[in-house]
Design a protein that fits this description.
Blueprint: E1 5-9, E2 14-15, E3 24-25, H1 26-40, E4 44-47, H2 59-67, E5 70-74, H3 80-92, E6 97-102, E7 115-117, H4 127-148, H5 157-161, H6 178-198, H7 201-210, H8 219-231, H9 235-244, H10 247-250, H11 253-265, H12 269-283, H13 287-307, H14 310-330, H15 335-348, H16 351-374, H17 380-392, H18 396-408, H19 414-432, H20 438-450
Helix pairs in contact: 1-4, 6-7, 6-8, 8-9, 9-11, 11-12, 11-13, 12-13, 13-14, 14-15, 15-16, 15-17, 15-19, 16-17, 17-18, 17-19, 18-20, 19-20
Length: 452
Amino acid sequence: MPRPLCFVLMPFGQKKDPQGSPDIDFDRVYEEALRPGIEDAGMDPLRADEERTGGIIHRAMFERLLLCDFAVADLTTANPNVFYELGVRHAVRPSTTLAVFAQPPPFDVNYLRALPYELGPGNRFPPESAAGLRTTLASRLKDLRTAGHQGPPTDSPLFQLLTDYKAPDIARLKTDTFRDQVAYAAGLKQRLAEARDRRDDAALAALEASLGPLDAVEAGVLVDLFLSYRALEQWPRMIDLYARLPAVLQGTVLLREQYALALNRHHRRQEALRVLASVERDQGSSSETCGLMGRVYKDLWVEAEQRGEQALATGYLDHAIDAYVRGFEADPRDAYPGINAVTLLDIKGDREALTHRDELLPVVRFAVRQRLRAARAADYWDHATLLELSVLAGEPETARQVLGKALATVREKWEPATTANNLKLLRTARHRRGLHEPWLDQIIAALEARAT
């Protein structure tokens, strides 16, 4: 007999803590506590994919909200998608929904039979916190399963407060095909992951051809396919696929931003800028949108410099700086647009730009160090950002120390090559100002050696 399905409503990846503490790694909460706790209760977990679908609540999501036997909703950070999905669940299911949250709760949970858990110091979610949540969650879900035979207690506030409100007859829905649909979508996503790991673009193309009309395909599968092409740097295929996606997916911020990225990598830079400008106009400035826009202008600046069009290059450089600054101001915790803004201000090199650089540099450094404190393990880009900041601040000894850490965490050869190219742009600009730093030459040489 198949095990009951338990739908998990929660954010994906690392999310900002509303209390100002380090980011919360929700993937870790899921993998180390929620998923094994659900399995310990004799259920099969099924995680919502709203992050991968750009936040839209699509048809398959509604099916899972309605038809899964049980559901767990993580209310930490007051994620709006999770709240919406929980509301839908409570509107049709009087019971079998368990809310969990990390303390302090995001809102008054007195009406919910909610399960609190601890993230631990710095939101690191240590093994003892994971074990505690796993054990308690399994126990609560087992109790729900046992109570289900006698009629489980009502946990929906709607059904608790409106005693005459009746639940719809879910049994009339097409529950016979639901498990097959879930398994089919999971199988497609697994095949996409395997093709990405093998870097097999032919397998991705064959899988896309097998899907049939795209408006009948689950949104999560389409977004996985779109991002799989990105992973393999198949920019023309990304552009072509975007044009054929259902309109509801085309309109999401996630896919519009990634479409712009593909356009830029395919050297269709003005089109990319138009897409990003429309996103910023619709949703306001964000670190992601403005960071992508800054990258497009940065590429245009480099190309104009190479053609010797100095006036045009200066204009593009100013636009790139403005975009990166807007992105960093939109979210000062995201160091990516910040480090790019500081670097380009140094490259511009006039008095006003250098004053702005000196104002931003310590703020960006603080953002990187906060991320390093929050992360389980620092990656190459964390150390590379600190390296660039040390160079920008004229700190050769600190730069040499951070260089070793950066080189030790290289995963792909293009990573140190990218940092070396950034530092070479910086070196060229400083040479024009009469500033020669032999120690910077040594750092660039070490990065280029690691890239070979």
